[in-house]
Design brief:
Blueprint (H helix, E strand, L loop, with lengths): L4 H7 L5 E2 L5 H13 L4 E5 L16 E5 L5 E14 L5 H7 L5 H14 L8 E12 L6
Parallel strand pairs: 1-3
Antiparallel strand pairs: 2-5, 3-4, 4-5
Length: 142
C-alpha cells in the first residue's frame, strides 16, 4: 500500500518537497538516474533559496522529490551541501550528477537550464548538494 504525500510529510514535518528539472521529460529522466543510484548529486542556482524561495538544504534533512504530477517519488537525505561559483564547477561533482558526459556537457546543459529558469552569469552562485536515497515510493509491480 502506497502512502500519500500528506502521510509522508506528517511523518517527516521538516521535509521539503521539490521536483527535479523543469519539464516532465527531464524530471522522469532524472528520477530514473536517482532511482538507479547513478545520480547522487544535484545543483541549483542559489537565488532559488532563502527568504522568498526554497529552504536551503541541510545535512541530515530528508526531502521528498515528486513525480511531475505531484505524487511522491523518492525521499532523499542530504549528505553534503556546498556553494560555488559557475566557474568553480569540477569534473568530480559533474560525474556525481550522473547525466553528463563531462564538464563541457554540464556547462552547455546547465547554462540553458539556468537561462530558462531565471538567468545565467559566469559568476553566479550555485548550491551543490550530495544525497542518498532513503525510500523509493514507486508502486511495486507484482
Amino acid at each position: 500500500m502506497s502512502r500519500s504525500l500528506q502521510e509522508i510529510i506528517d511523518a517527516n514535518p521538516e521535509a521539503e518537497t521539490f521536483r527535479f528539472g523543469d519539464s516532465k521529460a527531464l524530471s522522469d529522466e532524472i528520477l530514473g538516474l536517482v532511482r538507479s543510484g547513478v545520480k547522487t548529486a544535484t545543483c541549483e542556482a542559489a537565488r532559488h533559496y532563502g527568504e522568498n524561495g526554497d529552504a536551503w538544504p541541510e545535512v541530515g534533512r530528508r526531502d521528498v522529490a515528486l513525480e511531475w504530477d505531484g505524487r511522491p517519488a523518492v525521499m532523499i537525505e542530504t549528505v553534503e551541501v556546498s556553494t560555488r561559483r559557475w566557474s568553480e564547477m569540477d569534473e568530480d561533482f559533474v560525474a556525481a550528477q550522473g547525466e553528463f558526459r563531462d564538464l563541457a556537457h554540464w556547462r552547455d546543459a546547465y547554462r540553458a537550464y539556468f537561462e530558462r529558469t531565471g538567468g545565467w552569469s559566469e559568476d553566479m552562485k550555485i548550491m551543490c548538494e550530495r544525497f542518498r536515497v532513503v525510500e523509493d515510493y514507486a508502486e511495486k509491480q507484482p
